[in-house]
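[Discussion] Sanity-checking designs against the backbone

I'm trying to build intuition for which residues belong where. Below is a structure token string of 137 positions. I'd appreciate it if someone posts a full sequence so I can compare it with mine line by line.
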């Protein structure tokens, strides 16, 4: 067992010290939420599945995941995507909207404010759509 652990450790060190600089091959970008589905009222201690839709600007956007930030009872929601740092990315303007679902557990009896990222305006300022959802206990 000790030999296996040593072998794994040495392999990890060898991979970590690779001279191939792949650090700039990918980066993360935040995509706007095109649409969302939320219940009108949340029930305390229940778990809900929320559905978001989004569109990729190019085919270099892959591996979408949820961007979710908590601040008190406010939840900021967006789509985070891994982007290939390439010059041959192809725009996909006619691509159908893609769907991302996530679980949300209601842990408070006070209303939640969801801020859905909608992109940036002409001045580069972030735009959010806010929805307040009351909670029944």
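Best answer:
Here's mine. Compare freely.
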């Amino acid at each position: 067992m000790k030999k296996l652990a040593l072998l794994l450790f040495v392999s990890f060190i060898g991979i970590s010290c690779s001279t191939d600089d792949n650090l700039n091959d990918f980066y993360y970008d935040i995509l706007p939420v095109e649409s969302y589905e939320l219940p009108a009222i949340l029930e305390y201690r229940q778990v809900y599945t929320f559905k978001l839709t989004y569109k990729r600007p190019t085919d270099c956007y892959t591996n979408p995941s949820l961007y979710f930030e908590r601040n008190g009872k406010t939840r900021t929601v967006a789509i985070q995507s891994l982007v290939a740092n390439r010059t041959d990315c192809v725009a996909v303007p006619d691509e159908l909207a893609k769907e991302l679902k996530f679980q949300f557990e209601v842990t408070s009896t006070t209303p939640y404010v969801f801020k859905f990222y909608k992109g940036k305006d002409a001045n580069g300022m972030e735009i959010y759509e806010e929805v307040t959802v009351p909670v029944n206990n």
